[in-house]
Every structure is written in C-alpha cells, then in structure tokens.
Amino acid sequence: MDLENNSKDTPIKSWWKKVIQSNSNNQTVTQKQEDQIFGVPLQQSLHCARAAIAYVDNDVQYVGFIPVIVAKCGSFLKDQGLYTEGVFRMSGSAKRIGLLQQIFNTYPNYGRQLDWKGFSVHDAANVLRRYLNYLPEPVITHNLYQPFRDVVSSQATEEEKIQQFQVLIEQLPEHHQYLLFYLLDLLSLFSQNVQITKMDTFNLASVFTPGMLLAPEHAMNPTQYKTSQKVIQFLVEHQQFFKMPRSSWYTVANPSKEQVMEKEKTTTNNISQFTPSSSPARSASVNIPSNKDQRIKRAKTMPSRRSKYGPNDPLQVVQLNKQSESGYNSPL
To answer: Which strands sit side by side in the sheet containing 251-252, from one edge to the other?
Structure first.
C-alpha cells in the first residue's frame, strides 16, 4: 500500500515542484526587468541606485548623479588604486567580481553599504568595466558615435577639436554627460600616475572604449576600434577643458547641507525627466563648504581610512573648464 501511495504521490509532487520553479523564475524575470542595474539603460540604472557627485566649473558648483556602482568603485579606486601597477588591465578574482556584481545588482541597497573588505583594486576595476560594457547603449550614445569619430579624424587644430567635442557632448542626454565627465576625470587622474600604474592614456582608452564609444558592427574591426580609442584618449587628455553644459540639473551656490537636502525633497521622483526642475528626489547628503576659502578641491575628496567606506563615502568632486591654467580659450 505504501508503495502504491508513493507512486500516486510522485506525479503530484513533480507537478507542484514545477509550479514552484515556474513562480520562482517569473519572480526572477520581474526583478531583472525592474530592479537590475546590469544590462539595462543608464536611465533605468539611475532610477534604481544613484549617487551624488559635485561638479565645479570655474568656481560654479553643480550637483549631478551617476550610478552607485560607478561612484563606489571610483571612490575606492582613487583611494587604493593610484599606486597599483596594471590597474584596469589586470584581471581580478572571477569569483569576487561575480559577487560584487551580485551585490551591486541586488535590491534594495545596490551596494551602498559595501565597505570593500575582502575585495581588491583589480576586483573593483573589473566590475566597473563590466558594468559599462553591459550598458545597452554606451556612455557616448549610438546617434553620436560617428560625429565623435569624425572630429578626431579631422584635420582641425587641437583647440578646434576641443570646441567641436564640447558641442557634441552637450547633445548627449544629461545623465550620459555626467557619467562621461566623471569617467574622464577618473581616467585622467590615473594617467597622471603612469610611472607606477603603467597605464597611460592610450592604455586606459584601450580598455574603456567598449563601454564608452563602440558600435556593435565595429566591435571586431581593429581599425574601427582604434579610431574610437583615439576619441577616448583625446577626451581623457583634454578633460579639464570641457565645460558644464548649460542644461545642468541645478547649480549649488555654496549652500548648506540642509539646504541641498531640502531642495531635493521638493523635487520629483521621476528620474526619466532630467530637467532643472525635476531632479531626482533621493537625498544626496551633499556638504559643500560655505567658506569661499574652503572650496572643494579635486583629489582631496578621498578618505584616508578604509573605515570611511560603506554608506558614508565622501562627496567626490569633478573639476571642469580649467582653460585659464593652460591658455586655451573657452570652447564656447
């Protein structure tokens, strides 16, 4: 009798197991569509997890947003990777990189609490590159792919190319502009330590081109790839000459932390509308000194102790439009 009952129960158990697996798969698909940051458009990634970045253009201060994964990796790499040979080129641990991807891809924290214990510089560098490479549309969008390449291939002077790139950058969606400026600043910082990292602008552009400027039809074409690489290399080498687009979300005129947080509370939650009157509503915890003599400065924003990582990452600063230091005229 027991054998007979077991025989009758088996199809029922098998059916119930399939039902549970089906429901689990459906839930996974739903989460991937709505809550994932890898392999989704930048706009959707920002909707899930964004971090505030300060941008300074000729002493005018702005607040923009980039994905949490980019801000967290960038902060860690600036602090720990500037004296690491082969950073961005050498592979990390496949297991740890996969774990980082899972951490940054998981609702609701998306890696905001990550303190980097147990992870290396190469792990962080590789997961950052993986995120950019998985974007359906690169940082420089497909519609501007060829115009950017045309500039670097032209016979224009260096100053004229800067002006032409400035015009093209302002045609990018604003969330792509902020991400581009952040990455150019990050790569420029690493290129200044080339004696130690062995990563000059050519090498940095080589590894970041797939996520920043590449068309699928040219992915396997070495000649076309090199043209795109030249664009990224030029942008990195001249990043300090580009200006903050006039369509920026909003300007910060030395406000207090409370004023910035209050301003964000009054804005909409809809990340799809990047306009000055509709900035993302999540608190950025921006703390910009009110004293003019204590202006925020680039390369001084990184924590000196690992304990400052986690939810209390320091505000990062990107300096733009520094023509006065080199003699270039304003692009516009």
So the answer is: 251-252, 60-67, 50-57, 317-320
Q: How many CB atoms lie within 10 A of CB 146?
A: 12
The residues pairing with 252 across neighbouring beta strands, listed in sequence order, are 61
Helical ranges in the chain per DSSP H? 2-35, 42-48, 68-80, 94-104, 121-133, 145-153, 158-169, 174-191, 194-197, 201-212, 222-237, 257-265
Question: For residue 294, what are its two tokens?
Answer: 């204590």
Q: Which residues of 202-230 are buried (b: 16+ CB within 10 A; e: fewer)?
A: ebbbbbbbbbbbbeeebeeeeeebebbbb
pTM of the model: 0.74
- Over residues 135-150, the pLDDT tens digits come to 999 999 999 999 999 9
Q: Which residue has the tokens 């997961």?
A: 127
Q: Is the predicted pLDDT of residue 165 greater than 90, yes or no? A: yes
* Closest of 102, 98, 101, 105 to residue 36, by C-alpha: 105
Q: What are the backbone dihedrals phi and psi of residue 53, each rounded to the nearest 5 degrees, phi first?
A: -130, 140
**What digits encode the pLDDT tens for the residues 81-93?**
999 999 999 999 9
For helices 174-191 and 201-212, the axis angle rounded to 10 degrees is 160
Distance CA 74, CA 51 (A): 11
Rounded Cα distance between 320 and 240, Å, is 5
Q: In this predicted structure, what is the pLDDT of residue 313?
A: 74
Please state the separation of Cα 109 from the chain's center in Å: 17
